[in-house]
Amino acid sequence: MKQLLSKYSQIAYYTGILTQIVGIITLLPLLAIILYPEDSQFAIYFLVTSVIALMLSVFLKKLGKAHSTDALVAGEDFLIVVIVWLLAMFFSSLPFLLSGQLSFTLAMFEAVSGWTTTGLSVVNVEVIPKIFLLHRSVIQFFGGVGLILVVFSVLSDTYGMRLFSAEGHSDRLLPNLKKSARIIMTIYSFYMITGVGLYVFFGMPFFDALNISMAALSTGGFAVTSNSIAYYKSIPIEILTMILMVLGNTNFAAHLLLFQRKFKRYSQCDETRMMFVSIFVFTLIIFIITRQLADLTFRQILFEVVSAVTTTGFALSDYSVFRPFLVMTLIPLMWMGGGSGSTAGGIKQYRVVAFIRSCKLSIQKAILPKQVVKDVYVSMPTQKLYLNPMETLRIHHFISYYFIIYFIGVAILVVNQIDVMDAAFEMASALSTVGTSVGITTATTSSIVLWTEMAAMFFGRLEIMIVIIFFVYSWSDLNMFIKGCIRFKKSIGN
Questions:
Q1: HEC string for 325-383
Q2: How remote is the C-alpha of 137 from its chain's centroid?
């Protein structure tokens, strides 16, 4: 029991550090008041939320201060990351809830969709005050880059590599973790600011440009108009949005190659090749088949494919009109998802590459001499990564878990009177944190469906295994706590 209390005291300290960042992030939407002074009436809800988060942060840090120098052990990192993300989602829902804009379920849905960079939405963007639109975009921005990475970039790297890796980051660019985090944040911010400037140059209002740039780069997809990017009726804006989505989909280590002008090495990355080949092939197939069936231009199809591959969710078309072929074709793209270490979701392209090569290897082993068969590898930005059998097995396990969760989610939606095709599309969108919808996710959707989608988004953003391990460790610790209480009660009785 004493060991358990010590463990959770340490977890409380780290959780307090990270919750402090959440409290600060909650204040950023107040900047909307500069452009929209009438929204100042809602400032109190963000201030109250921030104060509560910061007070909790102080309490948790004091609670675990005695263990602040202890190194994290296996499992504790996953507990911290999941707890902090849950707290971030809860606190981000409070401004919606306290202001009366949304019910608890809808407020949580919007917050979960934002932090997981999914982009599925239940708010009427034409009616809701601008400060809440900025709030959604801000949490998408930080949800894309990751809470842990933000902490490393502004504080220090003393909190350990475990937390950084547990959040799904494989993009350590330099031996010094703090410098790596700062480089990533610098690249991320540079793209976002450049995107805002170019959007304004192409005629988009500044507020829209700020929100769309953050949403595109984080591959989140929250729009500020009901017609998404189609509202602007601008080819330059569509092209810029596709570029930002592709950048958000790209591993940050690959971005460093671009800044260093190592274009050849960038083009040799398997994820880069898979992304562009997928975009080209699927765009061509859809265009050839649908040109006789629907009024879709090549430009529209290209945009929808890029949005699906990058798991962003922006749209130029109404998917409910162009069914079933277009809808069903985009599902595999959403399953695949984006690059590792990027803001995108899905199974991730490097896992798909490794899966294909491992399947090819198993066939080769059966028909070729052993000395001819090579190991499975994936060409990553920093190196050619060779995978041993255990690492390959983990990838197969991950893909299996992904589809188990996916089909369970589809089944739940179907039981709740949703068409099978719509359920398949919506669940792929939620689990791969895409955000594209065929229209079944709205403010009037069943709470069971919304909470199912929230669970899928959460699993998808934290890459499934982290959440599974969280539940395994929590269950183990709960059993240990109960047994400890029973032993304590018996000792008192004796």
A1: HHHHHHHHHHHHCCCCCCCCCCCCHHHHHHHHHHHHHHHHHHHCCCCCCCCEEEECCCC
A2: 13
3-state helix, strand, coil in the chain (%, to 5): 70, 0, 30
Let me know how many helices (H) and strands (E) the chain has, helices first: 21, 2
| Residue ranges making up the domain that contains 270 | 2-341+464-470
Residue 455 lies in a domain: no
Provide the domain count of the chain.
1
Q: Are 199 and 229 in contact (CB under 8 A)?
A: no
Tokens found for residue 81 = 């990351």
**Half-sphere CA count of 115, side-chain side, radius 13 A:** 29
Of the candidates 171, 170, 175, 212, the residue with the CA atom closest to the CA atom of residue 194: 212
End-to-end CA distance of the chain: 19
Residue 271 lies in a domain: yes
Beta-carbon count within 10 A of 393 CB: 12
Query: Cβ contacts of residue 191 below 8 Å, gap of 6+?
Result: 217, 244, 247, 248
Instruction: Kindly state whether residue 146 falls inside one of the protein's structural domains.
Output: yes
Rounded (10°) angle between helices 76-98 and 465-493:
100
CA dihedral 429→435→436→440, nearest 10 degrees, is: 80
Residue 290 burial (CB < 10 Å; 0-12/13-18/19+)? Answer: middle
**Residue 212 counted as domain residue:** yes
pLDDT by residue for the chain (494 residues), tens only, comes to 566 666 677 788 888 888 998 999 999 999 999 999 999 999 999 999 999 999 999 999 888 776 656 666 666 778 888 898 999 999 999 999 999 999 999 999 999 999 998 989 999 999 999 999 999 999 999 888 777 676 655 554 444 555 655 555 555 555 556 677 777 788 888 999 999 999 999 999 999 999 999 999 888 889 898 888 989 989 999 999 999 999 988 887 788 788 888 888 888 888 888 889 999 998 998 888 777 656 678 888 899 889 888 888 888 876 655 567 777 888 988 999 888 777 778 888 888 988 988 888 888 777 767 665 567 778 887 778 788 888 888 899 999 999 999 999 999 999 999 999 999 999 999 999 998 888 889 999 999 999 999 999 999 988 888 888 888 888 887 777 777 777 766 677 65
